[in-house]
């Protein structure tokens, strides 16, 4: 088969990473490249230049998504789309979404230098604001492109300085046309770092992602009564002691179900001064699981626990749901094909359920979608220590190339 | 006995409270009257005026302590000192130290209007900066007057705006002479609100304070590793989960010893954002008990627990001791006398060990000292809800009067 005869060029891919890793670089090897900032503009300009050098036709849509299309032999065939996002968290990592974009570029470059003609067109994409840090919620580019969000919703989002998404888009010169949005896509494959420790722990080279956990997020306020530390142990309504029990109850529940995770994120104590025990604690928690039924059962269980703890601790607890997104099941046709190609390449692998949202989550609504994960050292992500070895990147990119070639000729 | 024939004037005492409660009043019936501020100056000026109206000789010492002396018949006899402090916490209560000063004033007024001549002189005192909120540490006025702190140490303290204690003292015109410091004092009796729930819970009218708990304070840093909430439950080093276990271990230990209290005060979580679990938690805790041996045993126990939790949670924990003050045992001669007078008045009572520091703590170093506590509604203090009924205040002030009259004739 043709695809076994060609190889990606790892030094070329490294060189692309070296360029990307300098734009928004932090002191400790991370990246701060928030969406629609000057840093984002710089990497976009370079990316567009690279696409043009490969002879792709480049389009920018009305939320700044960048597409580069490599035509296929069959003019009626739907595209295979590959890619991810080039924006990062503040002091985030160099790999995260960048890997998905640069590996896709390497796939295109490899096909080009080997003069491979495919049946289907292949499109590469860089989605706007996957991270959602500057403009919340995340995955705005893919959300609008797939009809999950309206353009008006996206344009009206404001960052903490009051700048709107639309203003920021115009400011960096990436406000394109609505008619440039993606269409006629049959498959979407996104390569991404795992953002978890499982592949490393299990010594697997490839993660085949079955889906994305659904997530429900809550805000909790625990109200006790602050008083002087001179107050005897008896009769205190210490909001921190109660909230600590809640944190442990929320953590403990993860032991009951496989692939369940919970996270207490924001955690604020009032008044938080040395001599006074806490009168109020506000915290957020989320519950993530692929299976919506299991997730809802766990949420009921947590709510009951929080209620019981409040009563026992004589504090008042309010729980407000702030976000819900159901579990996403990726295309079994695609995960099956990825498994086949992984086996042909003799890479060790395992199935994974992603805990994080990804552009693939929205793409799954409009086309057959799956993801490939590479190992993340220590499971770290969204931090400067985020790391994936070039050895692992080489394997994953080779797999992506082979998957793309298989799909590109399957009409 | 003469002392049974005279009564305090409750409407006069109420009127004094009404004056005090307006100076630094907060919207919700509390007081913000930080030491050496303009509000403090106002109440001091009024207090000095009241002392002068009672014919007392007024002195101001070099840390702003105000003394008013009522001479006794016996010129060689040492004084009985009574009083407390007029400063408050930010959004603190109307009673706290104010009760000790105004009840003492009422004792003097009652003696005067009944033309009672005592053997010993009686001195009333208002100590500077008992609260220690604007200038840390607390109890600076009594600390310098009793030789626990030097004047230089006090003068060099600075508030958060960089203003020194000495500048603030000069600014409000209360920088007096070193030779005016207290001397020749035999007894010190301080009336104060309980700042705890025991008297109310046990339906007792009077608390006879046996001593002040010793206190040791620590700063703890728990270092795990922050990462994205997408990280599976497995392999997390969540600093908040570990710290929550520590909070509960520190709280749990109070069940093993009577009159033991522990407080986690400051509690800060990093980064405290919705999508990331905690990489670091910093918190303070203190351990309070009258018996130094018990306190030290409890501290060892807590340290072992924190170490065990760190190991089990795979986080790093550093513990730094920042403050230690041993337990204070008040004069049994004085607590015995207070008990006798309480019984004569048929007031219900119980012994109490104070969890908070008080000026009496330092006074105990230089003279026979004890304290009388009144009930605090719900045990609240250092907050606007702090409340003690006038009924309870009347009983405690009557007791104080009788104790003073007993001591004043006992030479």
Automatic annotation (TrEMBL), chains A, B:
Cofactor(s) this protein requires: Zn(2+)
Pfam families xref list: M20_dimer, Peptidase_M20
SUPFAM superfamilies: Bacterial exopeptidase dimerisation domain, Zn-dependent exopeptidases
Residues the entry annotates as binding allantoate: 217, 275, 288
Record bears the keyword Isomerase: no
Cofactor binding note from Swiss-Prot or TrEMBL: Binds 2 Zn(2+) ions per subunit.
Family the UniProt entry places it in: Belongs to the peptidase M20 family.
NCBIfam families: hydantase (TIGR01879), PRK09290.1-3 (NF006769), PRK09290.1-5 (NF006771)
The protein's name in its UniProt record: Zn-dependent hydrolase
Taxonomic source organism: Siminovitchia acidinfaciens
Source organism phylogeny: Bacteria, Bacillati, Bacillota, Bacilli, Bacillales
């Amino acid at each position: 088969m043709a695809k076994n005869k060609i190889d990606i060029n790892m030094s070329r891919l490294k060189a692309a990473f070296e360029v990307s890793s300098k734009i928004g670089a932090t002191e400790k090897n991370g990246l701060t490249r928030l969406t629609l900032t000057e840093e984002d503009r710089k990497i976009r300009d370079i990316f567009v230049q690279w696409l043009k050098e490969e002879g792709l036709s480049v389009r920018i849509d009305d939320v700044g998504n960048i597409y580069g299309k490599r035509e296929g032999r069959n003019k009626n065939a739907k595209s295979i789309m590959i890619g991810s996002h080039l924006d990062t968290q503040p002091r985030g990592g160099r790999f995260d979404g960048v890997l998905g974009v640069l590996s896709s570029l390497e796939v295109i470059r490899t096909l080009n230098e080997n003069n491979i003609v495919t049946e289907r067109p292949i499109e590469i994409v860089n989605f706007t604001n996957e991270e959602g840090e500057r403009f919340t919620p995340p995955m705005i580019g893919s959300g609008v492109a797939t009809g999950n969000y309206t353009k008006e919703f996206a344009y009206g989002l404001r960052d903490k300085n009051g700048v709107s998404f639309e203003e920021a888009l115009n400011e960096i010169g990436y406000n394109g046309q609505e008619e440039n949005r993606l269409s006629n896509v049959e498959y979407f494959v996104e390569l991404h770092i795992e953002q978890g420790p499982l592949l490393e722990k299990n010594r697997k080279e490839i993660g085949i992602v079955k889906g994305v956990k659904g997530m429900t997020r809550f805000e909790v306020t625990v109200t006790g009564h602050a008083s002087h530390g001179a107050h005897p142990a008896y009769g205190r309504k210490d909001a921190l002691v109660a909230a600590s029990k809640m944190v442990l109850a929320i953590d403990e529940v993860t032991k009951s179900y496989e692939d369940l995770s919970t996270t207490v994120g924001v955690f604020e104590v009032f008044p938080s001064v040395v001599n006074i025990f806490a009168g109020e604690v506000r915290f957020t928690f989320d519950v993530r699981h692929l299976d919506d039924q299991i997730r809802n059962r766990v949420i009921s269980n947590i709510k009951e626990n929080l209620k019981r703890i409040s009563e026992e601790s004589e504090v008042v607890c309010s729980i407000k749901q702030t976000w819900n997104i159901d579990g996403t099941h990726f295309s079994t046709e695609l995960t099956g094909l990825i498994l086949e190609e992984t086996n042909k390449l003799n890479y060790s692998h395992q199935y994974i359920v992603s805990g994080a949202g990804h552009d693939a989550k929205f793409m799954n609504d409009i086309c057959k979608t799956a993801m490939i994960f590479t190992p993340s050292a220590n499971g770290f992500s969204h931090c400067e220590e985020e790391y994936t070895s070039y050895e692992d990147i080489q394997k994953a990119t080779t797999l992506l190339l082979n998957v793309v070639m298989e799909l590109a000729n399957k009409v």
